[in-house]
Input
Amino acid sequence: MEKSLVLIKPDALQRGITGDIITRFEKVGLKIVGAKMIVAPEELANKHYPKDREEFIVGMGNKTLENYKEQGIDPVEILGTDDPKKIGLELQSWLVEFITSSPILALVLEGPHAIEVIRKLAGFTLPSKAEPGTIRGDYSFDSSSYANISKRPIRNLIHASGNLEEAEFEVGLWFTPQELFDYETIHQRHMTV
Ligand code: GDP
Output
């Protein structure tokens, strides 16, 4: 059993597709054990997207560079640099600005292999590469190069914890133990008989 954090980002709330997204998680059997609507304070957003987590910052920068290479775009022309760390830090500031700009819905979902299952349902980061049937593949078509030119994050509707370590950290960051609940779902009963 794992718990994972999902943030339904401002674009999903503003488009009125929050219910559809939650339904997809519920349909596979994931249990909602925490839920809150919040305008994230900047401090919380900076902890969620930590500037000092090299792996996260450089990882985002490298993903952007790879994507540009594939599309034959010169990163220096659009972002003024081809340094993955500098690009990652720039993306981090856009993410903090976006996530704090409007209400979001934070969820903790629980289930066997919840982290992997949620990432599968969410789909690939870039909407153009997210498979049909996934949340991002079915509901988003934003482009990374267009987002970069506009100096904003790709609008891809949700955040989902990437691994166990990240999930434990993020669940603890957004929820107190008292805000998490336990109850039995029909899916649990089916798995134990
Ligand atoms: P995720 O775990 O699939 O959300 O992807 P990442 O952790 O790599 O990136 C975090 C968020 O940053 C993504 O969900 C996007 O909103 C945004 N993002 C990622 N890559 C890019 C990019 O190349 N350009 C822009 N503008 N935003 C990006």
